[in-house]
Design a protein that fits this description.
InterPro entries: AA_adenyl_dom, AMP-bd_C, AMP-bd_C_sf, AMP-binding_CS, AMP-dep_synth/lig_dom, ANL_N_sf. By secondary structure, this protein is of the alpha/beta class. The chain starts with a helix and ends in a 17-residue tail after the last helix. The radius of gyration is 23 Å and the shape is globular. Among the domains are: 123 residues, 3-Layer(aba) Sandwich (Rossmann fold), CATH 3.40.50.980; 69 residues, Luciferase, Domain 3 (Luciferase, domain 3, Roll), CATH 2.30.38.10; 96 residues, 2-Layer Sandwich (GMP Synthetase, Chain A, domain 3). α1 packs across α2. The strands form six sheets. Strands 2-1-10-9-11-12-13-14 form an eight-stranded mixed β-sheet, sandwiched between helices. Strands 15, 16, 17, 19, 20 and 21 form a six-stranded antiparallel β-sheet that branches. Strands 4-3-5-6 form a four-stranded parallel β-sheet. It is built from 15 helices and 26 strands. The longest helix has 17 residues.
Length: 512
C-alpha cells in the first residue's frame, strides 16, 4: 500500500467524520471515502482487474468518481483519466493505446462506452455492491497513474508515474506549500491534466477538506467558491490565474482566508500575481515548474512581495526536496547553474512512456551515473539558487537571419500595462517567408488604437527584429479543456487578416 493510501486509511480511522470531498453530487466524509473506494477496489477485482493493470476513468469530476479513482489505486491498478469532452476519435485512440483492463464511468455514460467493445463498470454499481475489501501488496515501483501528454511525433504519450514518485511528490509538496489538515482546498484542474494530482490527491493525503471546482471555469463561479467556502489553498495555471484577475473583480471579493495559490504549467504574468497579492492580504503565491514526466512540479518559487507595477518575470524557484536540476549546454557539457537545457533527477521521475521505447530512451540522459530527464526547457540558475525559465528549445525561430526567442518577445509585449496575456508565433508571410504575429488579451475599453500603442511599446523595449508585425486583440485566449491556451486555434487566428490590428513594416536583415 502506498503512502497516499496509508494516509487515507489513517484519516478514516482517526477522523471518520471529517469532510473529505464536496462535489456537485455528494459530500463524503473520510470514512465514507474509505468505504466507497474499498468497494470500488473489490468490485474491480471481481471484474478481473489485477494489480499492475490499467483502468481508464472516463467521467466528469464528481465525489463518486474521485472515490472511484482512489478505488482503482487501492486495487493496485493504475488510473488513466480520459477527457470526456475530447473528440471521439481522440478518446478511442487513447483507450486503444493504454489497453485498459476496464473503463470506470458513471451510469449515464455506460451504454455509449459499451459499444466500443471494452469492459465497462460504473462507479455507482461498484459502490452499491458493498464488496469486502481486497488486500494490496506493497510495490513502490507499481504504476499509480498514467497521464497522456503531447508527443513530438503527433501521437500522445502515456506517462507512467509509479507510487514511489507520487509519494516523493506528496512528501516534497506538503511542507513546501503549507498543506495541512486544516486547509480548505479548491480543485480547478481536470482529471486528465497532471496538475490535478496536486489539487486532488495532495489535499486528501493530508486530511484536508476538498471542494471540486466547477466544470466550466467561469471567473464568477470559481471566485464564488473561493469566497463562499473560505478556500485557503488552490491551484490555477498561469492563464487561469490571469483570467480570474482580469475578469473576476478581485478587489470586490473577501479573500482573507486564502493562504496559498500554486500556479505554473505556463509562464505566469507578473501583473496577475500582483493583482492576487493585492486582493488577498494573507496570500503567498508559488510559481511552480515541472514536466508531467517528473510528477507535476519539481521547483517552486515563493512570491509574497507586494510590488505594484512589476513587469519582470518571476523565476520558477529552487528545487523541491528530493529533486535535482542541472543544465546541459549546446556543447554537451553539464553544469550546476547553466545556461542550458534543464536536466531533472530524483525520485519523482516517471517510470517511462507506455509502449514508446524509442522516445523513452531519448527522454533520459545519464549524468555521473544518475538518470536525468531531458526537459527540453531552457534556463539558468541565479546567485540566490532560483532557476529562471527561458522557454523551450523549440521556442527559437529564425526570421531573415535573425535568431528570435518567442518567449522573450512575449515577455516584452506583456510589459505594456494594458496587456493581460500575450501569445507570439512565427506565421507564414508572402514577402519574407515568416513574420511575428501576436495575440493579446486586454480589459474592456482598452481603445481601438491599442495595436499602434503596442507597436510603439515594442519598438521601445525590443530590438526591431523581435517586434511583432501584427497584433490581434482578444477578450480572452482560446483554451483547451485543461485551461491551457489552445495553440492551434490561436495560430489560426494569427494567420487571418486583421486590418485594424495589423502593422506592416519591413524586417531588417540579420546575420546568419
Amino acid at each position: 500500500m502506498s503512502g497516499f493510501l496509508r494516509a487515507l486509511t489513517a484519516h478514516a480511522r482517526e477522523r471518520p467524520d471529517q469532510v473529505a470531498l464536496v462535489g456537485p453530487d455528494a459530500t463524503l466524509s473520510y470514512a465514507r471515502l474509505h468505504r466507497d473506494s474499498a468497494a470500488v477496489a473489490a468490485g474491480l477485482a471481481a471484474a478481473g482487474v489485477r494489480p499492475g493493470d490499467v483502468v481508464a476513468v472516463h467521467a466528469e469530476k464528481t465525489a463518486a468518481v474521485i472515490a472511484g479513482l482512489v478505488g482503482i489505486v487501492r486495487a493496485g491498478a493504475a488510473y488513466v483519466p480520459i477527457d470526456p469532452t475530447a473528440p471521439a476519435a481522440h478518446r478511442i485512440g487513447l483507450l486503444e493505446d493504454c489497453a485498459a483492463r476496464a473503463i470506470l464511468c458513471t451510469a449515464g455514460r455506460a451504454d455509449t462506452l459499451r459499444r466500443q467493445g471494452v469492459t465497462v463498470v460504473t462507479v455507482e454499481d461498484l459502490v452499491a455492491s458493498g464488496s469486502p475489501a481486497v488486500a494490496v501488496h506493497e510495490d513502490p515501483d507499481r504504476i499509480a497513474y498514467m497521464i497522456y501528454t503531447s508527443g513530438s511525433t503527433g501521437r500522445p504519450k502515456g506517462v507512467r508515474i509509479p507510487h514511489r514518485a507520487l509519494d516523493a511528490f506528496v512528501a516534497a509538496v506538503v511542507p513546501s506549500l503549507g498543506f495541512d489538515a486544516a486547509a480548505r482546498c479548491l480543485n480547478t484542474l481536470p482529471l486528465h491534466f497532471d496538475g490535478s494530482v496536486v489539487d486532488l490527491l495532495v489535499p486528501l493525503a493530508v486530511g484536508a477538506r476538498l471542494n471540486l471546482g466547477p466544470a466550466v471555469m467561469a471567473p464568477s463561479l470559481v471566485l464564488d467558491l473561493v469566497e463562499g467556502e473560505r478556500i485557503t489553498h488552490m491551484t490555477a495555471i498561469g492563464s487561469t490565474l490571469a483570467l480570474l484577475a482580469q475578469r473576476g473583480d478581485l478587489a470586490a471579493r473577501d479573500l482573507t482566508a486564502l493562504r496559498m495559490v500554486l500556479t505554473g504549467a505556463e509562464i505566469v504574468h507578473p501583473g496577475a500575481v500582483q493583482a492576487w497579492l493585492a486582493a488577498a492580504p494573507n496570500l503567498t503565491v508559488f510559481n511552480g515548474y515541472g514536466p508531467t514526466e517528473t510528477t507535476v512540479i519539481v521547483t517552486a518559487q515563493r512570491i509574497s512581495e507586494r510590488e505594484p507595477g512589476r513587469t519582470a518575470p518571476y523565476p520558477i524557484g529552487p528545487e523541491l526536496p528530493g529533486s535535482h536540476i542541472c543544465f546541459l549546454d549546446a556543447d554537451g557539457t553539464c553544469s550546476a547553474d547553466g545556461p542550458g537545457e534543464l536536466l531533472i533527477a530524483g525520485d519523482q521521475l516517471m517510470a517511462g512512456y507506455h509502449q514508446r521505447p524509442e522516445e523513452e530512451r531519448r527522454a533520459f540522459l545519464e549524468v555521473h551515473g544518475v538518470r536525468h530527464y531531458r526537459s527540453g526547457d531552457i534556463g539558468s540558475r541565479g546567485p540566490d539558487g532560483a532557476i529562471r525559465f527561458d522557454g523551450r528549445r523549440d521556442d527559437e525561430v529564425k526570421i531573415r537571419g535573425n535568431r528570435i526567442n518567442l518567449n522573450e518577445v512575449k515577455r516584452g509585449v506583456e510589459r505594456h500595462p494594458a496587456v493581460g496575456q500575450a501569445f507570439v508565433e512565427a506565421v507564414p508571410d508572402g514577402a519574407d517567408g515568416l513574420r511575428l504575429a501576436c495575440a493579446v488579451t486586454v480589459p474592456a475599453g482598452a481603445g481601438d488604437d491599442l495595436p499602434r500603442q503596442l507597436e510603439a511599446h515594442c519598438a521601445a523595449v525590443l530590438p526591431r527584429s523581435m517586434a511583432p508585425r501584427s497584433y490581434h486583440v482578444l477578450a480572452a485566449l482560446p483554451t483547451l479543456p485543461s485551461g491551457k491556451p489552445d495553440r492551434a486555434r490561436i495560430r489560426a487566428l494569427l494567420t487571418e487578416p486583421q486590418p485594424h490590428g495589423r502593422v506592416d513594416r519591413q524586417e531588417p536583415a540579420g546575420q546568419r
